[in-house]
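== Sequence, structure tokens ==
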Amino acid sequence: MIKIIIMIFIFSSSAISANSLMFQPRMGNKYYVNSVLENIYGPESKIILQKALLPYSDFFGGPCDPYEVVLSKKKGSSGTLYKCFNGMPDLRSHMISQPSTLRTMQMKNLCQKLSQDQKTLKFSLKVLNNVKEFKDKIQSYYHSFYPWDNLSNSEIENIIKTLNKKYFWKTYSELLCQSERWQIP
């Protein structure tokens, strides 16, 4: 009888520890994502980011700054980055977030808006100005999101074969923007 109790205890404690050891990447919060995307898509992206990213603390994490709320009421201060878009409940948002379906859906929405806007897409494509070869342009644009990584020749060939020629840069921009790996700081 004691052996059975010990076996049940060992089994249940190993199950608990196995579940607690599951790896979940820590995603960058809304301020990290905002910073990266604003660098890629330029100053014109601020309006889109303020509407489609910064108010979503529940999905992206990143609490607002309570002092910004006080300062923004004073004349002459115009900070919106750390604004409490959803009021004081944003103060309780987590500093970081985990991958989730809702985050993925909101990123898809955000990336579509950034890639469909002519000004933001044109700004993001400036990295291609001095690049001549099409394959090098694909690699160069990839570096906008993943500066530490390179695409293999076969990956570049697959991208060329897969994406619609007419909307190539819009689609490529949207796909890279939606990918999760660059969102992990």
